[in-house]
């Protein structure tokens, strides 16, 4: 996956605040005061390009998200 761009989308409306994504990829995912997913340092963003070194963790977080609130695609 080296050199490929990955775009990640979060869908807070689907989030059930289980905490898995932040446990798996704490450099990328954080939570609102209500426990809903957001990007670290980007409270309003729903899309973000993921640095290469974090892509595997984002993929694992998306695969393990029980509510499918995290989507990703390589370009």
Explained architecture:
The protein has a single domain, classed as Alpha-Beta Plaits, CATH 3.30.70.20. It is 20% helix and 27% strand. It has helices at residues 20-24, 55-64, and strands at residues 6-10, 29-31, 37-39, 47-50, 70-74. The strands form 2 sheets. A 3-stranded antiparallel sheet has the order 4-1-5, covered by helices on one side. A two-stranded antiparallel ribbon has the order 2-3. A hairpin with a 5-residue loop joins strand 2 (29-31) and strand 3 (37-39). It is globular, with a radius of gyration of 11 Å.
Topology, element by element:
Layout: E1 6-10, H1 20-24, E2 29-31, E3 37-39, E4 47-50, H2 55-64, E5 70-74
Antiparallel strand pairs: 1-4, 1-5, 2-3
Characteristics:
75 residues, alpha+beta, Alpha-Beta Plaits, three-stranded antiparallel beta sheet, two-stranded antiparallel ribbon, 2 helices, 5 strands, 4 iron, 4 sulfur cluster binding, electron transfer activity, electron transport
> What is the helix/strand order?
EHEEEHE
What is CATH's topology name? Alpha-Beta Plaits
The tally of beta strands, per DSSP, is: 5
Oligomer: single chain
Largest sheet: 3 strands, antiparallel
Helix segment tally: 2
**Which shape, going by the Cα principal axes?**
globular
User: Per DSSP, what share of the residues sits in E-state strands of 2 or more residues?
Assistant: 25-35%
**Unreliable segments of 5+ consecutive residues:** none
**CATH level-two architecture:** 2-Layer Sandwich
Which structural category do the helix and sheet elements fall into?
alpha+beta
Strand order across the largest sheet: 4-1-5
Helix content: 10-25%
The tally of structural domains comes to 1
**Average pLDDT reading:** 93
Tell me the name of the CATH class: Alpha Beta
Distance between the termini: 10 Å
Radius of gyration: 11 Å
Protein name: Ferredoxin
InterPro entries: 3Fe4S_ferredoxin, 4Fe4S_Fe-S-bd, ET_Ferredoxin
Domain 4Fe-4S ferredoxin-type: 6-34
Function: Ferredoxins are iron-sulfur proteins that transfer electrons in a wide variety of metabolic reactions.
């Amino acid at each position: 996956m080296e050199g490929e761009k990955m775009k990640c989308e979060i869908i807070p409306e689907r989030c059930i605040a289980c905490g898995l994504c932040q446990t798996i990829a704490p450099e990328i995912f954080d939570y609102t005061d209500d426990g809903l997913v957001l990007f670290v340092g980007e409270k309003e963003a729903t899309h973000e390009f993921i640095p290469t070194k974090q892509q595997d963790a984002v993929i694992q977080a998306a695969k393990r998200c029980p509510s499918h609130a995290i989507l990703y695609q390589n370009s």
